Model the fold of this input.
Amino acid sequence: MAGDVATLGAEPRVAEGARSSERDGVQVLERACDVLEVLASTRDKAGLSDIARQSGLSKTTAHRILQTLVKRGYATHEQSQGYAIGPKLFELATSRIDALDLQTEAKPRIVTLSRALDLTSYLGVMDGPFISIIEKETYARTDDDFTQVGRRYPAHCSSMGKCMLACLSSHDLDDLLSGFDLVAFTPHTITDKDAFRQHLRQVREQGWASDIEESRLDHRCVAAPVFDYRGDAIAVIGVSGSNDELPDERIETIATHVVHAAMDVSSAMGYVP
Done:
């Protein structure tokens, strides 16, 4: 009887053939991953010989793996050009990225940003010719009345809006500006459209924008765009405060922190520079 009953807690016996089959399966999976990594690192299509050499596999093994990948849609093949990453991988990546919550990813970053700089930080999105704040971490209570979640701001006089506008194509920017007046909210607001376009070119080149009393006197903000896996600007992270809290000599240091936080969120959303 005892010989017919497995000892409680003991590892079940596995036949040597089963172990060998499992090892072979893992090895095949590892080799398939090697092939996919070669395809992913190749800018153009790759030939069988190059794939075999870079993955350390024989041509026969590489060809067998590639046939399976092509059949399942993980790779594509054109006889004259070679192999490339297939649409199935993009579908899987897109499913994962689409499931990500922008606010969930951004919240810890803006909390860290606020604590590091002792400034109010926030997350904003484009809403026509306006910017809407959808997430906020308050540091300065005096800034509460101006940077409320849900509040909309004209894009042309806010650092967040200028970041988003700077990421538009020339055609899209012209369309937006054609029916929009650059209203002066303070003496510092840019109201000339040609000057504004020039200003946006500078924003695009440096990767961040500032609002130095353009929307309200004694109010400054610095912002940087957040990109998704397609490279599209989908949101903005920014900080704000008074003239004393954001003096001229501190702007570039603050901008470095803001850009870093925005790039962290971009990476979490699948963006690859």
